[in-house]
Amino acid sequence: MVLTRKQEYRREYYKKNKEIEAKKKKEWVIKNKEKVKLTWHKWYKKNKNGLQMKRQTNKIKEIRNEQQKGYVKRNPEKIKAHSLSRKIKLQEKCQDCGKKATEKHHEDYSKPEEVVFLCKECHTRRH
Ligand SMILES: [Zn+2]
Ligand SMILES: [Zn+2]
Questions:
Q1: 110 part of a folded domain
Q2: 43-60, pLDDT tens digit by residue?
């Protein structure tokens, strides 16, 4: 590409200007080192809690994710059984005490269709 004189001049001008601006900024930072430091320090102090919290929640999320992954890995049958049993309609009565059944329990996770209908209390007792 051939530049016209005008374009060339403009390019030079911007280049020089950029250098001057960068130099000015650098000089300003050197001159105002303390001020910059203080501003940064103030900002950090103000946002410290927020930053820490963000880091912490991220870590918690990570751990939870890992736990979830581990749980799925360790209990593939259990999870499969649970998702399959969701289709099974809940029966009226708890098979142990006759109260209203609210939960499904698997005696054997390899038989996801075979569920026992229990109330919360009896379910807890069975585990
Ligand atoms: Zn019961
Ligand atoms: Zn159960």
A1: yes
A2: 998 888 888 888 889 999
